Structure formats: C-alpha cells, structure tokens
Hints:
Largest sheet: none
Number of domains: 2
Shape: globular
Strand content: under 5%
CATH class of the largest domain: Mainly Alpha
Number of strands: 0
CATH topology of the largest domain: Tetracycline Repressor, domain 2
Distance between the termini: 64 Å
Helix content: over 70%
Amino acid sequence: MTIIDEAISTSPPLTITAPTRPVGLVRDLIALIRPYQWVKNLLVVPLALLDPAALRAGPLFAVGWAVLGFILASSAVYIINDIADRHRDRVHPKKRLRPIASGRVPVPLAYAYGALVSAALVAVVLGGPAIAWWPLGVYLVLNVAYTRGLKHVPLVDVFVVALGFVLRVVQGYLAAEVPVQSWLLIAVFAVCLLMILGKRRHEVGAGGLAHRPSLRGYSSQYLEYLIVLCAVLAISAFLFHLNTAVPPPYTTVALLGSVPFALFGLARYLQVVVVETSGGEPVRVLLRDRAMLINSTLWAALIGSTLFAAH
C-alpha cells in the first residue's frame, strides 16, 4: 500500500459533488487559475522598470505584455498541477476543497479549460511585440518536469520553484531591452527560496507525507537553517545591487536606509513562519500582514525617491 493509499483510507470521507449552478462553476473556474497569485508576476517581472532606460512607452508596453504572458503561463500551470495533484490534495485538510480535488470541476472540463488558457498564451506570444520569450518557455518546461516528478525530490522541488521567479525577472529585462542586473537576480532567487522554504516548514507540521512526499527530506530545524542562510544571501546581494545601481552620492543613502527595512522585513517573515506558524501562503502574508505592508511601502518610497533624485 502506498503512502497516498494509506492516507486516503484513514482520512475522513470526502463528498465529491459536481457543481449544480453555472455561477458556482464560473467561480470555481476563476479560483482554479488563482488570481490572487498573479501578484507574483506584477511584483517580479516589472523589476526591470527600476532601470530608468525602461521608463518609456515602448518598454513599458512590452513589460506589461510580458506580465500578461506569465499570468497566462502560470494559470495553465496551476490547472495542470491541480489535475495531477487531485488525489494528494484530497488528503490535505485545506487543499481537499480545491475545485478539482473536491469534484466541483470535472477533470475533462479542467483539461478543456487548460487547453483554452494555453491557446490564449500562444496568442499572446505570437500576437504581441517582438520579445524573446525563452524564459517563459523554460518556465513551462520546468513546471512540466516539476509536475511529473521533480516536486517529489527534496531540495530540487524548492529550487525549481524559486528558479521560476528568476525567469520572470529575466523575461522582464528582455522585454524592456535593458541589461540584466546579476546581483538583483541573486537577491530575487534568495528571497523566493526563503519564502518557499518557509512554506515547506509550515507544511512539515500541517500537510504530512501523503500530500507532499518531498517533505520526507526536511525537518523544521533544517528548514530554519536554510531560511537564515537565504536571508543572509538575499540582504547581501540586494545591498551589492544598490551599490552598483545607485550612483554616488546617493549610494550611501540607499545602502544605509535599506538595511533596517531589509532586516525588519526578513525578521517579520521569520516571526510569521517560526513563531506564528502561518507561512503556508507567502503571498497572503506579504499582502495582508500590516507590518510587512508598512515596511515595504516605506522601503519602496526610500528606494524610489533615491533613484529619482539620482537620475
């Protein structure tokens, strides 16, 4: 008997019901592509706009088009993942309520929906401005491999997900036609890895092996070590980026001003993950935690005003 079979046999019975009203079905189809997760693309892809050379009509439109492309690509990935994970999701106390796992969206309909979203993605890639779309292609290939097995390999699973965010940033730079900032990419990779590790730490105590077999390779203490390591790398890389991106005499202001905001943000996230054990959904933490929102707003105002004054 496999881990999944054993967990399913011992878990509470789940009533699988098909949607009875068109309004409910539409709501489930919208939930299936996770609109609340689209902010990942809105925050990561346009990082290229920090370069003043990108603040023109053409690059702005191209970056917006790249955001749309990644929204559709990530939506298609969510549908594919939910189809593949529907059996494991049914043994998770929260994910068992997802549209496909609960049976409200039939699997054939989910496949058709995924094909429709994929067709829209192809239309965006072929019908938009001339952009090098190879980061999006690599993102899709990685996620197919992730769904088919990489998600079950400890460490590999979190690195693949974090790499997806780096590909978003690269796509933004290619769309804006500005040079890629290597230190910023390292900082993005470290921050994203930190948040994914925080999510895994939450799952170690809540999900169980039946939901995510890769958790067998983690423990709470081990994940905390990795989170601290990524936090140090993220702060260091971002400070190196500011040191090269902000010209003097504004460099000192940007560096010294960023340190307390960066440390507070990471400390607050660690508090959420370790003390409050609420790191299961990093996007919701970033968008709903008042301390994080205030800290991020003040930090963005500092960096924005410094860059504006410098250029």
